[in-house]
Amino acid sequence: MVYMTDSAPTTLTLTQPDDWHLHLRDGEALAAVADHTAQQFARAIVMPNLNPPVTNARMAADYRKAIMAVLPDDSAFEPLMTLYLTDNTRAADIEQAHESGMVKAVKFYPAGATTNSDAGVTDLKKTYPALHAMAACGMPLLVHGEVTDPDVDVFDREAVFIETVLKPLMDDIPELRIVLEHITTGHAVKLINQSGERLAATITAHHLLMNRNSLFKGGIRPHHYCLPVLKRETHRLALLDAIRSGHPRYFLGTDSAPHARENKESACGCAGMYTAHAAIELYATAFEQAGVLDKLEAFASLNGPDFYRLPRNTEQITLRRQDWQVPDNYPMGISTLIPLYAGEHLHWKLGTD
Ligand code: DOR
Ligand code: ZN
Prior knowledge:
This protein is of the alpha/beta class. It has helices spanning 27-40, 57-70, 91-100, 128-137, 157-172, 186-194, 205-209, 233-245, 261-264, 279-289, 296-308, and strands at 2-3, 11-15, 19-22, 43-46, 78-84, 103-108, 141-143, 178-180, 199-203, 250-252, 316-325, 330-332, 335-337, 345-350. The strands form three sheets. An eight-stranded parallel beta sheet has the order 3-4-5-6-7-8-9-10. It has a four-stranded antiparallel beta sheet with strand order 1-2-11-14. It has one domain (2-350): Metal-dependent hydrolases (TIM Barrel), CATH 3.20.20. It is globular. The longest helix is centred in the middle third of the chain and has 16 residues, at 157-172. The chain binds (4S)-2,6-dioxohexahydropyrimidine-4-carboxylic acid and zinc ion. Residues 23, 49, 114-115, 144, 226-227, 257, 271-272 line the site of (4S)-2,6-dioxohexahydropyrimidine-4-carboxylic acid.
């Protein structure tokens, strides 16, 4: 990574980053959002929570084709496909997916945890044959780390998941490689720091930039609602410590999750923040606030491919210190999409050269 000056850099050049956690959807939403990600990232791990979910290699191949079809012909963007783990996923499904070369991971949603997770896992033990097959071929399990028990406080669901689901799973299948997705708590940071090479975590820009007060600033803020929900400031500070540490098993995963405006601004609004329009700029903002812009490149561009055992990118991108206003909305089919920080100013901008 190259700075123009030591104290307050005006440009930032880094190896092209990848997004290790992304929702692209399908249909009109896919067409509306895919190019935002392709403009910034070389590759992205594409989440499989469509309706119906992507549960086998054939469906992943079809989804990959649909993604490529909405991108410009000369786009070099590479979608990295995932399968959606269900109680019925068989070891043979994993082996076929691995042999396809195109499926890089499998996503575990506890049933009912979030958007389109009704087909998720009800009893993790039922999936053990599939998980053993993943351990055998080195394919990572990507974990939505929240329990769904309605009696557990919504702000405690990640911590309870770590104790009651994740640690037992790690003991049961020691060879299984795991990414704890979109971590939000000091409990998760402690676990990653204590665990060996088989456990990594993605961190979103929004969980680095905001705490739970942002949900209620001046009134209820549906565009700041996501899952896992924003936590109290002490947990955000733990995430900042994680990125400051330069630990190699934290990496970038936006969890950019587009929903039509009316589905967010509703009596029962959907979870998810849209951040793909300014993903690397948002991370640069967070890393600068944390005083560690020099740690951005490893987090955004190196640690992810190293964990996934994929080559690092060779192209570079340049960010410039430049004031710009985030659009109020983006068109999405017959609706609109409200991006994070709509109408507000950011101070880093991805260069076009
Ligand atoms: O906020 C979220 N939105 N969290 C998730 O886990 C899923 C995502 C979505 O697909 O909308
Ligand atoms: Zn997600």
